[in-house]
Amino acid sequence: MQKINEMGFVRVAAVSPELKVADIDFNKNEILQQISLANEKQCQIILFPELAITSYSCGDLFYQSYLLEGSLKAIEEIAQQNENGGSIVILGAPLFLDNMLFNCAFVLADGEIKGIVPKTYLPNRAEFYEKRWFSSEFQRTRSDILISNKSIPFGADLLFSFSNLPNCKFGIEIGDDFLAVEPPSSQLAIAGANLLFNLSASPEILNKAKLRKLLVQSHSARTCSAYIYSSAGAGESSTDNCFSGAVLIAENGELLNDGERFSFDSQMEIADIDFEMLNKERMENSSFFDSPKQKIFREISIEIKYPNPPLSKKKEFFREISPDPFISKEAEIDDFCKEILNIQTTALAKRIKHTQLKNIVLGASGGLDSTYALIIALKTLEKLGLSKKHLIAVTMPGMGTSKLTKNNIVKLAELLEINLLEIPIEKAVKQHFEDIRHNPELKNVVYENAQARERTQILMDLANKHNGFVLGTGDLSELALGWCTFNADHISMYAINSGVPKTMMKRVLDWIAKKEFKGETTNVLLDILKTPISPELLPIINDEMPQKTEELIGDYILNDFFLFYFLRFGFSPEKILFLSELAFQDVYSSDEKKYWLNQFYRRFFAHQFKRSCMPDGVKVCSVSLSPRADWKMPSDAAPFNC
Questions:
Q1: Residue 493: closest CA among 389, 567, 392, 416
Q2: Burial class of residue 638 (count of CB atoms within 10 Å of its CB; 0-12, 13-18, 19+)
Q3: Fewer CB near the terminus (10 Å): N or C of the chain?
Q4: Residue 525 Cα distances to 157, 285, 390, 475, angstroms
Q5: Separation between Cα atoms, residue 578 and residue 599, nearest integer Å
Q6: DSSP secondary structure letter of residue 154
Q7: 3-class secondary-structure state, position 307
Q8: What is the mean pLDDT, run by run of 10 residues, along the chain of 642 residues?
Q9: CA angle 513, 519, 521 (to 5 degrees)
């Protein structure tokens, strides 16, 4: 049974509890109830809103000793009652100290208060009057406070770490702190905090939710952190202000959780944060080690009582692991596909404008890659105001060409009204076999690669003849696996698909078929998408393709999954396998996933030499295998093993 901390995850909960204004007993009991529920889910850190014990809307009641003494007593009771619960609790409450009142976050663990963080920036505009009651971090005069005869660290210069969870730290800011020109969390992030918690009590007004979400996501992206935000709920509403209970969890710019707003019931959102991924991002982000450390933080170490919540099923993991990590969420798919088309067509248009070679020569087999490249070429010519006659599509049937793929490309060419040259290669390849004294009955790599190289020769010579250039069709997945013939489909004058993995290409072509075309053209494109992926180099037997690529090298959805986490985050084989168990739990057995992951590593490491001399091709997604843009790897490195 895998344990999430061992895989670089930590489980957090953000809670907006049901509350009553100034009713400390009610609020305390509800907080304890929510802590109990979070403990059942084995949450390791639990965040509550700003001034959650008293409520935020107390106004001049904050001057009442009854409220202040009751608040501190409730904090101590919550800490004691959660001693055996195991979680770390971050809870908002007022604190009277040195004739000043502070709006604070109390960090509770092991049955005691571990640290107290005061708010730094106090809003004092419109509906906010915090400076009427509270003093800020800037007015703090001491670094610790005595509570129940125990000295507690006090200040916004506190950074919390875990004695039994290396490389994971958290920092705290409160409410409008994160709206400051230089939020406290920025310095906390530079100091090593990869989890940032915000206790808030933000009244709702029109369009504020959209801005709040944007700020949380953008701040998590800018700081390469997880940003966990919890605001006071509907029960906080009083007089002229309405509160909604916004609960947000973002990680490196991506919103993982967005809780229900405007509920009077308690709301809880739980997420498993990938702090290892955040650390990998920071490792490659020079701003983290170049930024001057302007502030010195006091580090407080806490032991996590649930080191490693066990995980045996996907439903026990509080995080979506998509089997298609390259693919955008369905709700955003239109913008996603349009952006890819814009990137590819603009890059290709620039190459055409620069070289002044207006004719594009493209091998069109009727398979997925060449069909996609053909569509990109047509869209590019359209962008440049050039006619379709500048596209020279060539089909080159050989020993393994199927009727299905040939018929599809012929039909598609007719529907798109483009000229399609047909140049059979069988005669030329057989002559080549005679020249090199190869027995054509021996259907080995020579038999296959000779056809691929013959096709490339034809395309290159046609490009010279027509004053054009060869547009490559091979994709990112094939480059990763070395599934391209050296000095054949491996080579072109511009590799338009080299930044697009197979799964992404299929999704975009499906979108193009349904959104950009209609009728019979749509049907042909969808039929091409359904056709088994094959190099079609071995003779057809009883109308059946003897070569199906995914039977030989593994399903592309698996290989692209491995490729994403290997390239994008540099995860270990164990972690990639762990994530694949969650993403493909009911699709592949554990043995199958492990086998194909090892095959992925073997192929990836063996074929770096092909990537070292690959042609130009536009980077599309967050990873690329170009030796110029992204990936620099020795060609003779030993493969990883799982």
A1: 392
A2: exposed
A3: N
A4: 60, 41, 22, 18
A5: 17
A6: B
A7: coil
A8: 82 96 97 95 95 93 95 96 90 96 97 97 80 93 94 97 91 93 93 96 88 95 96 88 92 95 94 96 83 84 73 76 91 93 98 95 97 98 97 96 94 96 97 97 96 97 97 97 96 97 97 96 97 90 83 96 96 96 93 97 98 96 92 95 89
A9: 50
Integer angstrom CA distances of residue 461 from 251, 332, 470: 51, 42, 9
* C-alpha to C-alpha distance for 375 and 457, rounded to whole angstroms: 23
Burial of 176 (0-12, 13-18, 19+ CB in 10 A): buried
Residue 182 gets which letter from DSSP? S
Backbone angles phi, psi at 475, to 5 degrees: -110, 175
| CA 563 – CA 600 distance, rounded (Å) | 8
Torsion of CA 397, 400, 403, 408, to 10 degrees: -60
Structure tokens at 257: 């959780």
Report pLDDT for 238: 85
Structural domains of the chain sorted by starting position, each given as residue range(s) with its CATH number in brackets: 2-316 (3.60.110.10), 330-612 (3.40.50.620)
Q: Please state the pTM of the whole predicted model.
A: 0.93
One-letter-per-residue 3-state SS of 4-38? HHHHCEEEEEEEECCCCCCCHHHHHHHHHHHHHHH
Q: Which residue carries 């592309």 as its tokens?
A: 556
Measured CA to CA, the distance from residue 526 to residue 522 in angstroms comes to 6
CA atoms of 384 and 376, how far apart (whole Å): 12
Q: Which token pair is 120?
A: 């730094």
Of 291, 304, 281, which Cα lies nearest the Cα of 226? 281
Q: Which pLDDT value is given to residue 164? A: 85
Using DSSP, state whether 430 is helix, strand or coil.
Answer: helix
How would you write 187-235 as a 3-class SS string? HHHHCCCCEEEEEECCECCCCHHHHHHHHHHHHHHHCCCEEEEEECCHH
Q: Are 584 and 321 in contact (CB under 8 A)?
A: no
Distance of alpha carbon 422 from the chain centroid: 43
